[in-house]
UniProtKB/TrEMBL annotation:
PANTHER family in UniProt: 16S RRNA (URACIL(1498)-N(3))-METHYLTRANSFERASE, RIBOSOMAL RNA SMALL SUBUNIT METHYLTRANSFERASE E
Family indicated by similarity: Belongs to the RNA methyltransferase RsmE family.
InterPro entries the record matches: Alpha/beta_knot_MTases (IPR029028), PUA-like_sf (IPR015947), RsmE (IPR006700), RsmE_MTase_dom (IPR046886), RsmE_PUA-like (IPR046887), tRNA_m1G_MTases_N (IPR029026)
Database matches in NCBIfam families: PRK11713.3-5, RsmE family RNA methyltransferase
Protein name listed in UniProt: Ribosomal RNA small subunit methyltransferase E
Entry-linked Gene3D superfamilies: 3.40.1280.10, Hypothetical PUA domain-like, domain 1
Lineage top rank: taxon: Bacteria
Swiss-Prot/TrEMBL catalytic activity: uridine(1498) in 16S rRNA + S-adenosyl-L-methionine = N(3)-methyluridine(1498) in 16S rRNA + S-adenosyl-L-homocysteine + H(+)
One GO CC term on file: cytoplasm
Record's subcellular location: Cytoplasm
Species whose genome carries this gene: Roseicella aerolata
Role according to the record: Specifically methylates the N3 position of the uracil ring of uridine 1498 (m3U1498) in 16S rRNA. Acts on the fully assembled 30S ribosomal subunit.
Length: 234
């Protein structure tokens, strides 16, 4: 379980009401049971549930079980699409080890409203479920051009479904394992030609293909991340 609290041996810490509900109501745990805790800073700790009522729960960290891992450098830039697809991408990207989920707004984005708090909660739950010791950050939704103008030069791979780009697998092989990279997919309507041209003018951008079929944005996001993680992930 993730808690934004310092983890120290014997120092009792409160759980959130949602965690109390999950542990008591869903998992049917009881005081004295063991849980694993992390906070993104102090590694993983084995802890004991010291109190558990309907909306209140507390833990006592007993001993460290895994050292803290670094926040992954990999980033996902995802164009705002419909809510279910955004939720799904946030969950899968977390499982696939992303460090930052950055919603971007493009000309064909169907919405400019992204509930980043909701995405952060989904990312936290997915991090707990998959056993990582960091929760990806969810950036505020921002126009793509603004994100590109402030870019730090990290290689940015962009999904292109127009059959004009080399395979992602080729580009991914040129990246060194464990170094930073970012993956960007467009909205359901794709990027406008001018947006693609603007992307291609940037030295840090490579447009790449995931094959001859047109994938949904969320499929392209997750398929690309799987390839990138397999070849250049940490
Ligand atoms: N404009 C397209 C159309 O209607 O023909 C569809 C865009 S697609 C649903 C959404 C995004 O997924 C694209 O902007 C691209 O980034 C990514 N994508 C989809 N298929 C892809 C492929 N075969 N290779 C690389 N990226 C792909």
């Amino acid at each position: 379980l993730y808690l934004d609290q310092p983890l120290e041996e014997g120092r009792e810490i409160p759980a959130t009401p949602a965690q109390a509900h999950y542990l008591g109501g869903v998992m049917r745990r009881a005081p004295g049971d063991a849980v694993l805790l992390f906070n993104g800073r102090d590694g993983e700790w084995a802890a004991t549930i010291t109190a558990l009522r309907k909306d209140r729960c507390a833990f006592r960290p007993d001993r460290p079980t895994r050292p803290q891992e670094a926040t992954p450098a990999a980033r996902l830039l995802v164009t705002a699409v419909k809510r279910d697809a955004m939720d799904w991408m946030a969950e899968k990207a977390t499982e696939l080890g992303i460090g930052l989920i950055q919603p971007v707004l493009t000309r064909r984005s169907i919405t400019d409203r992204v509930n980043t708090g909701r995405l952060a909660a989904i990312a936290q739950e997915a991090a707990e479920q998959c056993g990582r010791l960091t929760v990806p950050r969810v950036g505020p939704a921002a126009p793509l051009h603004a994100v590109l103008d402030a870019w730090d030069g990290t290689p940015l791979l962009v999904g292109d479904e127009r059959r004009e780009s080399p395979p992602l697998i080729q580009a991914a092989q040129t990246l060194s394992r464990g170094t930073a990279w970012a993956w960007l997919v467009g909205p359901e309507g794709g990027f406008e030609r001018a947006e693609l041209d603007d992307l291609r003018r940037r030295a840090f951008v490579s447009t790449v293909s995931l094959g001859p079929r047109i994938l949904r944005a969320e499929t392209a996001a997750v398929a690309g991340l799987a390839v990138l993680q397999a070849l250049a992930g940490d």
